From TrEMBL:
Gene name as annotated: trxB
EC number: 1.8.1.9
Gene Ontology CC entries for this record: cytoplasm
Name of the protein in question: Thioredoxin reductase
Catalytic activity: [thioredoxin]-dithiol + NADP(+) = [thioredoxin]-disulfide + NADPH + H(+)
Biased composition (Polar residues): 362-382
Disordered: annotated segments: 8-32, 357-382
Molecular functions (GO terms): thioredoxin-disulfide reductase (NADPH) activity
UniProt keyword terms in alphabetical order: Disulfide bond, FAD, Flavoprotein, NADP, Oxidoreductase, Redox-active center
Xref: Gene3D superfamilies: FAD/NAD(P)-binding domain
Bias (Low complexity): 15-31
Pfam families per record: Pyr_redox_2
Entry's cofactor comment: Binds 1 FAD per subunit.
Amino acid sequence: MTQPIQALNILGAQTPTSTSSAPAAETSPAEGDTVHQVVIVGSGPAGYTAAIYAARAEMNPIVIAGALDAGGALMTTTDVENYPGFAEGIQGPELMTAMQEQAERFGAEIIFEDAVDLQIEGPVKTVTLDDGTVYRAKTLIISTGSAYRKLGIDGESRLSGKGVSWCATCDGFFFKDQDIVVVGGGDSAVEEATFLTRFGKNVTLVHRRDELRASKIMARRAEADPKLQFQWNSEVVSINGIDKVESVTLRDTLTGEERDLPTSAVFEAIGHIPRTELLEGKLELDEQGYIVVQGRSTYTSVAGVFAAGDVVDHTYRQAVTAAGTGCQAALDAERWLTDQAALTTADVQDPMTTAAEAVPTDESNPISGTDESVSVTLPSGR
Ligand code: NAP
């Protein structure tokens, strides 16, 4: 682990409060009682963009980037053709490495470990890593993104890594000149299927409806690809094989009829679920597990905790929209800290309570008029 940057002391609160339950001092000699201004959990376009903005605001951000999946979903994407500024497109990993380096250039510290516990109440939040290190911060930006959705069918877990995969760029090469099935009908499925035609003898896209959800340009490209076949109105009910994938059983969604399709590989590309398991019961999530933010802001239901990227976004889920909300989160965190510092300077006993009392009624505030039951400290609108 790299050495932490000493955080600036806006609130003067260097001692953890009673709401932080993680045993930091014992497990984290390197961190000690340092209280950072912001810790960003997650390292996709949202996390790295938040880091760029926070670093340029001299907040010395710490980014908990993840041990294996640093950089997020784009690390397993090939051509990104719609990120502005790249007329010829750019490879996903190249884009993410550039974002990481840009954040580091301004002083962000990237930690390649997984967060295993978040304590988010009170003026000092804690992030515990899987190596036991505890980071403390006045604000958190959650940008943990989403994980691959699974079909949850017979054979899927057993044959995972033995022909069942969620990443064509990682595993496609192993199925050279073999039959490959891709499941899904969105941009991911089409992108995976198109990529896999480089390797497979045949690639079959299995979709539960009779039209693709994917963007028109990608759908047209896929339908014109001679190496790509489609099984419409079909769902996969089981993945079959002893030590490796040998076939899938498909069910016709219109007639209910079942049939086997021989294949060596099944690539699942059926969307994602938000990675909020560390936050359950700690802040407001919606019924699908996405973090609820207030209005157009990145404020969550807990003061000093902000959220950005796919962990919030049901709808757009683009690298560029994630980057945009990452920027917003850094600005929101910076302004919130400034407001807290102003309140502290005014010799306020309890900054959290007083900040809530100072809620502006200004209608231009992005989060005014939201659910009153949500405890949130609002920006001053400066
Ligand atoms: P998505 O758009 O949510 O599509 C998921 C697909 O999986 C849908 O076709 C859905 O079927 C199907 N599906 C969901 N659950 C299923 C189940 N249990 N069994 C069978 N099929 C199931 O997800 P995505 O393709 O991962 O895309 C997510 C976002 O990223 C989108 O905004 C997309 O545009 C973007 N993206 C962009 C690019 C690019 O531009 N290069 C690449 C990848 C992703 P239904 O259609 O019937 O709902």
